[in-house]
Amino acid sequence: MAKMNSKILRANKALEESGVLIKLNAYSPEVVSTIFVSLDTRESDIDIVCTYQEQEAFIETFESAYSGYEAYSMRPRKDHALGQFHCNQFLIEVYASKTPLESQAAFRHYQVMKRLVKIGGNEFIDRIRQLKESGLKTEPAICRVMGIPGDPYAAVLELENWSEKELNKLLNLAQASR
Q: How open is the CA angle 41-43-44, to the nearest 5 degrees?
């Protein structure tokens, strides 16, 4: 379980102050931020994924709720929309698409991260953070720590089908080979 730190408390406060999970409730918002699994760096933002039926309705809801906030932006694309704003010293970034949450890569990566943090504990957390501080993104850092070759984003998705026992074995092998 991720250790509760002051950054998590401040991030929770930003979520509460912005009301983002309530205001976007119709779009099934889910927090997928590395902050909440202790794999964050100083620059980490609060990531949220949503799903919509109609992009225009999502954009209208988001604009009406957050266009007055600092660092507000909305970038609609053909297959998704990316909105962001600043609240309580955090950039809150919201990715929304027609894809159901359970199928979105960010949601799936987050589920894997939660499992890896639970299995790998503080040693895993510290190694990922070190690599991220040196410039790597989360998924490439996970693959480096675990000795997994290839595309890190696809590799992390592959891990979602692994059992706790298999993940534990891979983590132990990776730690032993250091």
A: 70
